[in-house]
Structure formats: C-alpha cells, structure tokens
Amino acid sequence: MEYAAAGRLQSRRDAPRLRGRVGSLDKRPWTGVEPPEGPVERIFVRRIALGESVAPYRLLDLVTGVVPMESGAILTAASADARGHRGLAAWLRDAETKWNEHSNKGVDGAPRMTLTRSLNHLQKLVAQAARSPIRVLYTKAGTRLSACWLEDDDVIIDHKAYWSAANSLEEAAYVAAVLNTSIVLDRVKDLQPVGQRDPRDFDNLVWTLPIPEFDASEALHVDLAAAALHAAGIAARIELPDSAHFTAKRRAIRQTLVDDGVAETIERLVDALLPP
C-alpha cells in the first residue's frame, strides 16, 4: 500500500488514506484491477517485509500494508464493521468484491478460496499475532538463499519470505550465517526432487539438513554467530541506490562480504559444522 494524496478528502491521523500498491511483480488478472483506496484505521496499517526485502544479513526496504488482524483473528468486512472499524470495513468490502470477481473459480463458479483464507494461508498470518522479539527471515525462492534477522515484532512477514523465532540475537545470527552459505544452497539443490516444476523454490528443505541447534557453549557456534554479526555490520554500511533492483542489492552485499573476507570465513565454519 501507499499513502494516497488526501486532496479535498482530508486524511485523518488515526485513519490515513491509503491506496493499493501496484508493482512490477503483479500478475494477471490483478494487473488490470483498480486497487482499493480509502481511509483505514491506523492500527491495521503495518510495515511488511516481502521476499524481496530479504538480503544477506540485511533487511531491505519494507512496504506498508493493510493487515486486517485483531486479537489474533482475521477480520472480514462484516466482522470489521461489527467491531466499529468503518474504514477497514469499507476497504475490505471493496477488496472482497474484487477478489470474488477475479480470483480462481471452482466448477460451481465460486472462488476456490475466500480472501480471508488466502490472507491466512496455512495460518501464516495469525501465527504472527504472538510477538517474537527476534526472527530469522529467509527467501522462499531464488537462485541464492538470502537470510537476515529482524528485531522488530511489529513487522508482518509476507508469504514470500519464511521466518522462525530465535531465542537470542546470537542464535539468529548463527542460523542466518548457515543459510547464507553456498554450502547449504548446494545441499538444498540436491534435496529437490527431479522434475520439480519450480526448482527455484527452497520452501522448508533447509530444515531437512543436519543443522545443529545453536549452543552457546560450542566454540564453533559462537564463532559463526560472531562472524555473522560482523557481516551484518558491513552489510548495514553499504550504500545501495534506491533505484537498484533488489537482486542487484543482494549481489552488491555478497560481493562486499567476499571482499572483506568474512564470507570465506563463514563458508569455512559452516563446512566444519555440517557433516559431509
């Protein structure tokens, strides 16, 4: 979403006027559908980490989104209206109408899935109602795995990125270090079934690898976490042009880490961590 110009329709501080975000990754038929626009109560306006937001050891730009979740429940237009959220109710009414018209249909002509079920596919949205102070994020698909961590439990993570709660910053850094290596990428590729339609999808294959749980008493684990924290410090200082594509930003970060030498250090440590 993006903040819409208020014009003659004044935008309230507690209910800013928003317009649906149009992006280059949008697919038909949604490219031809007018995005919803209108005021939405601020409590439902959240920052969202997309798959493209995840880079090695660094979170790139977040986007703004309308998240119709309250007290762990996903709201519909009707339930939002019943709870007195007039702005959200109007927004959802428009979105539900367009979803019912343009989404995939079953043999009976009805949508295969409601908008609410789509938003909460596999319970991935309501799972984020329970706050996690530190989360590890990694990309769902791509030619390289990218992973970082997030220390903000107010951010919602999109379905194009996977996440897992961490018990400490050191544990998050350790996990991100492992996931960012070419060693893990090569082993995940070996696990993908022959003939898989989209071999770019990593899904949860990384967790089938024998990755030891973080143990602060293990020197190798501590060294990996320290190297990852060093890599994150470097990644944070890299100047990335706003106009650059997210894949170019990821490449720039990886190359800088290679030049620093920390990328090689992490590869060596992960090679020692994982059994052959």
Question: Which of globular, elongated, flat, extended, rod-shaped describes the shape?
Answer: elongated
Helix and strand sequence: EEEEEEEEEHHHEEEEHHHHH
Sheet having the most strands: 3 strands, antiparallel
Label the structural class: alpha+beta
Radius of gyration, whole Å = 21 Å
Strand content: 5-15%
Low-confidence residue ranges: none
- Roughly what is the average pLDDT, rounded to an integer? 90
How many E strands? 13
Helix residue percentage: 25-40%
The number of helical runs is: 8
Q: Strands across the major sheet, in which order?
A: 1-2-3
Beginning-to-end CA distance, first to last residue: 46 Å
* Total domain count: 2
Give an account of the 3D structure.
The protein is of the alpha+beta class and 276 residues long. The protein has two domains: 96 residues, no CATH class; 156 residues, no CATH class. Helix content is 34%, strand content 15%. The strands form five sheets. It has a three-stranded antiparallel β-sheet. Strands 7-4-12 form a three-stranded mixed β-sheet, with no helix packed on it. Strands 11-10-13 form a three-stranded antiparallel β-sheet, with helices on one face. Helix 4 packs across helix 6 and helix 6 packs antiparallel against helix 8.
